[in-house]
Design goal:
single chain, 5-stranded mixed beta sheet, Aminopeptidase, globular, 11-stranded mixed beta sheet
Length: 401
């Protein structure tokens, strides 16, 4: 937990009506709470965010501008922006949450424990990419000192707004040093990612799998071809209106089958198409020339990220092909180093995706609950490490020399 002195060294300034204009008026370091990312300069934000599409200004702005996040649905933006000499020097995508949907680091049991003891777990403060369990930068800064300042500012904001807790989800290596020295509780997890071992073709990848897994994928592909299934890859430049309309029908139908409403709306995907066309990948499946399924991915210069899919008809093996094999084949064809298949799913192991460690960091204001969660996380970390060690990999073992 941040001590009182550290909290007092973090100075907030009220969010001005026009944060862009106010940048030039600030001569010293100051942190602002920004409730609309549109108030921040996109180029300055993206210079800190790097390649990850899920923390780029356009992605976060699209969520806000289309109503996919907002106070009305329990995702209240309170982004932190650190200005130095009038320029944006560091930032954090941050939200006040009134539920735990759309995070993928599951703390429902913690919330239930609070409720059973007559305490409020919500609101809480969460640093994440909404609806995107994708590891990436969270402390958008050029050095550990500014990353530490962002952590301190988030904890001060949680304290000042009476949030029960602060959570930072799916950070990657550049954030770890500052987080490890922050006093926050560390939580381990894992996802299944595919890593490109220099494959020139999809057949090269198949040759590296064990016999049983290679045979299964080949058989599935033959059955799909016999059923008249073929695939098309499109990006934000080449996908047509009809392609996007088909994807939306598939996406919305998947939620309807589970008796829920989509987190994202057509306007959001239209923004992705317009504002981030180079990052968008649509994998479209046709059956005898008619569109039947679709998968939506995002990419950067190194990785492909599987995100959403849907189908209008059940075809055996179609889900695995559209969501995993096609993503792997796309990554190989475009020289990408990895394909991330999303959260959960041990079934991905049979498709060539392997367990990859993920991380999150947590602070709880209530001392007794903080201690209890700390003990739980220690046991959970040991269990996850053991589980990952015991998984049988999908690749052939090289003979011992």
């Amino acid at each position: 937990m941040m001590n009182r002195k550290a909290r007092e060294n973090v100075h907030f300034e009220a969010n001005p009506p026009d944060a862009k204009a106010a940048q030039a008026d600030s001569s010293g370091p100051v942190i602002r709470v920004v409730t609309r990312i549109a108030e921040l300069d996109p180029a300055a934000w993206d210079a800190l965010a790097g390649e990850s599409p899920f923390v780029r200004h356009a992605f976060l702005h699209a969520l806000e501008a289309t109503g996919c996040v907002g106070v009305h649905i329990g995702w209240e933006p309170v982004h932190l922006a650190l200005f130095r000499d009038g320029a944006l020097a560091a930032a954090m995508p941050l939200y006040v949450k009134h539920h735990s949907w759309g995070e993928f680091v599951f703390d429902w049991a913690w919330a239930d424990a609070y409720r059973r003891h007559g305490l409020n777990y919500y609101p809480k403060l969460v640093c994440c990419a909404p609806f995107s369990p994708v590891p990436g930068p969270r402390l958008l800064a050029m050095n550990d000192a500014d990353r530490t300042t962002l952590i301190q500012a988030a904890l001060k904001l949680a304290h000042d707004t009476s949030c029960s807790s602060f959570h930072l989800l799916f950070p990657t290596a550049p954030d770890h040093a500052a987080l490890e020295s922050s006093g926050l509780l560390h939580r381990s997890g894992f996802q299944f990612h595919w890593h490109n071992d220099g494959y020139a073709t999809f057949d090269d990848f198949l040759a590296a799998l064990t016999h049983d897994k290679r045979k299964k994928i080949k058989q599935e592909r033959k059955k799909l071809a016999a059923a008249g299934i073929s695939f098309r890859w499109r990006d934000g430049h080449t996908a047509t209106d009809d392609d996007w309309a088909h994807f939306w029908r598939c996406y919305a139908d998947t939620y309807a089958r589970h008796r829920s409403d989509p987190h994202l709306n057509p306007e959001f995907f239209a923004e992705m198409r317009q504002q981030m066309p180079d990052n968008v990948v649509l994998i479209l499946a046709d059956q005898n020339g008619e569109p039947v399924a679709a998968s939506f991915c995002l990419r950067d210069g190194k990785r492909l990220y599987g995100r959403h899919w849907g189908t209008l008809a059940y075809v055996p093996g179609l889900h695995f092909e559209a969501c995993y094999q096609q993503g792997i084949e796309y990554a190989i064809a475009h020289g990408l180093v990895a394909f991330e298949g999303g959260a959960q799913g041990e079934h991905k192991l049979a498709r060539g995706l392997v367990p990859t460690a993920t991380h999150s960091w947590h602070w709880l204001a209530h001392a007794e609950f903080r201690n209890a969660v700390d003990h739980f996380l220690q046991r959970e970390t040991d269990a996850i490490a053991h589980y990952m060690d015991e998984m049988e990999g999908p690749f052939r073992r090289e003979p011992q020399a």
